[in-house]
Predict the structure.
Amino acid sequence: MTDLAELAVAAITDLHHPVKMETAEWAAKDLHDPALGERDLACEFWAEGWQRAADRGLLAAWVDPAHGGGGHDVITSLLMYEGLGYGCADTGLAFALSTQTWTMQPVIEQFGSDDQKARYLPRLVDGTVKGAFCITEAESGSDTFAMATRFEEQAGDGGTRYVLSGSKAYVTMGPEADVFIVFATKDQSMGKWGVSAFLVDAGTPGLEPGPNRPKMGLRTTPFCDVHFNDVEVGADAVLGSIGSGAAIFSHAMEAERAFVLAAQIGAMERQLDQTVHYSRERQQFGNPIGDFQAVSHRLANMKLRHDNSRLQLYRSAMLFALGKPSMEAAALAKIQASESAVDSSMDALLTHGARGYISEYDIERDLRNVAGGVVYGGTSDVQRNIVARMLRR
Ligand SMILES: Cc1cc2nc3c(=O)[nH]c(=O)nc-3n(C[C@H](O)[C@H](O)[C@H](O)COP(=O)(O)OP(=O)(O)OC[C@H]3O[C@@H](n4cnc5c(N)ncnc54)[C@H](O)[C@@H]3O)c2cc1C
C-alpha cells in the first residue's frame, strides 16, 4: 500500500487519529473564546483567533512549502480540519478558515503565475492577508455563468488593462479581505466561454465591499456584497489566462464541495458526544433519557450520519489525490455531509429539550450554523443535478 492509502485507511478506521486529536485539543484550548455567545449575536469576526489558527499552520496545511505552506497531503490536511471543527466552537471562524484553505488558495496554486504565487500565497498562509472568492451575484446564483459583472479590455502604451464593473453577492470574508478573486465576463451572451478570473487587491480604486450582512448562522464569518465600479487592473491580475474562468471555477468547486465540510464533520462529532453525554445525565421518569428507545435511536442515527459523511469525505479525498474523476463523489459527499448536519442538529435539539432551543447552549447555534451548508458551494439541488447527470452518461 502507498503511504497515502495507508493514511486514508487510518483516517477512516481511527476516529481518534493523532493528527485530528492534536488539532482538536489545541483548538479547544487556544481557540476557546468565552465571548463567543456575544460575538455570535453581534456578528463579530475574531481576528485574533484567525491569526492563532494561521500560526498553528492551518492555512498552510496543503500549500506547497515553496510558498510558505506546510506541504501536507490532502488526507492529513483534512484530519487537521476535522480536528479544528471538533475543538473550535466558533464554527464561523472554522468556516472562514476552511473557505480560504479549500477554495481560494488551491486556485492560486493551480492557476497563478509564479509572480502571483510568490505575491499572495506566503502572506495568505501566514495570516497577514485574507482572501475572498467572488462569483455569485444577486441575479446569478446557481446559474453562475449568467453573471453580469463585466470586464473590458483596453490596450495602452503600458500594456493591456482590464476594467471591471458590476456587483458580487454573499462574499464570505468580503468585509475583511485584502485580496479578492473576481469572476467577470467579457460578454454575457458568451456564457461560460466569456468568463475570466482576476486577482484584485483591496484598496484598488472603485473596489467597494459593502457592510457585513447579518445572517441566520455562521454569524462570526463576515459576509457582504462587493461592488466594482470601473476597477482597473493590469495583465498581471489575470488568473490563468483570459477565458479560463470556467475551468478555474470548476477546479475550485470540486475541492470546495468535497473538502470544505471537513470542519463541519468534526463539529458533528462534538455535537454527538455532547448529546450522548446529555442523554446519560438527564433523567426523566426515573431513568436517563438515553434509556428510552426513541432517544437512543436518534443517537444511533446521528452516529450513522456522521460515519457516512466521513467515509464520503475520505473517499473523495483519495480520488482527488489519485487524480481520478471525483466530481460525482464530491457532489455526493457535499449532499451527505451538509444534509446530515442539519438532520443531526435537529436530533440534538430535540434530545436536549428546551435546553436545545435556548441560546445559553451551543445546540441551537449548531442548527443555525449548519443550515448554510445546503446552500453554499452549490445548493443540494445543484449537487443532485450533477449526480443525476453522471448517472445518465
Ligand atoms: C454561508 C454562505 C456563504 C457563501 N459564500 C460565498 C462566497 O464566498 N462567494 C460567492 O461567490 N458566493 C457565496 N455564497 C453564495 C452561494 O454560492 C449561493 O447562494 C448559491 O450558489 C445559490 O445561489 P442563490 O442563493 O442565488 O440561489 P438560487 O440559485 O436562486 O436558487 C434558489 C433555489 O432554486 C434552486 N435551483 C436553482 N437552479 C436550479 C436547478 N438548475 N435545478 C434545481 N434547482 C435549482 C436552488 O437549489 C434553490 O433551492 C455563499 C452563500 C452562503 C449561504
Observations:
- Residues 133-136, 141-142, 170-172, 218, 372, 375-376, 378-379, 381-382, 385 surround flavin-adenine dinucleotide (CB under 6 Å).
- The two ends are 32 Å apart (CA to CA).
- Strands lie at 131-134, 150-154, 161-172, 179-185, 195-201, 207-209, 223-234, 238-239, 283-284, 287-288.
